[in-house]
Amino acid sequence: MRSPLRRTAALLFAATALAGSTAPASPVAAAPAAAPTAAPAAARAGARHAECRTRVHGSHATAHCFNGNATTDHVQLHVECVRWWDPDMDTARAAVGPAGHVSLTQRCWLGIRHAWVTHRA
Fold first, then answer.
1. pLDDT at 48
2. Is the separation of the CB atoms in 105 and 87 below 8 Å?
3. For residue 41, what are the contacts with CB-CB under 8 A and spacing of at least 6?
4. How confident is the model at residue 54 (pLDDT cuts 50, 70, 90)?
5. C-alpha span between 107 and 57 (Å, rounded)
6. Separation of alpha carbons 88 and 63, rounded Å
7. Which of 30, 44, 87, 108 could be a cystine partner for 81, CB 3.0 to 4.6 Å?
8. Under the phi-then-psi rule, with left for phi > 0, alpha for psi from -120 to 50, and beta for the rest, what region is 79?
9. How far apart are CA 9 and CA 1, in angstroms?
10. In sequence order, what are the residues at sequence separation of 6 or more whose Cβ sits closer than 8 angstroms to the Cβ of residue 118?
11. Residues 116 and 106 sit within 8 Å (Cβ to Cβ)
């Protein structure tokens, strides 16, 4: 999976190349700047969540989330435990601002069956 900075740079490069190749010849027609701003808006619409990587090691789960977007994302780590008597655990929701990073940790007593992260704008 590509890093958010790399993906953003690639999208900006593509938008710049696209805007440069479709420039009209007359300076009067070049006044509307709708084409260059349309590509970044489309890029923001597709990538509105922070990127999270979840790691399970024994009975501990850790999620590292980085938000490469311009809007704040709220992330929460959920853990499903292996044993029926071990309660499933959720962390408190954490806000990740633009260009921000957060680490979430949670554990079960004996083992983790599944760990995942949910997002809310």
1. 79
2. no
3. none
4. very high
5. 10
6. 16
7. 108
8. beta
9. 15
10. 75, 76, 78
11. no
C-beta separation of 82 from 98 below 8 A? no
Q: What is the mean pLDDT of residues 84-92?
A: 92
pLDDT of residue 25: 41
pLDDT reported for residue 9 = 59
- Per the document, the length of the chain is 121
HSE-CB for 112 with a 13 A CA cutoff: 21
Give me the amino acid identity at 58.
Answer: G
Greatest CA separation for the chain: 73
Cβ(107)–Cβ(79) under 8 Å? Answer: yes
Taking a C-beta distance cutoff of 8 angstroms, is the pair 43, 11 a contact?
yes
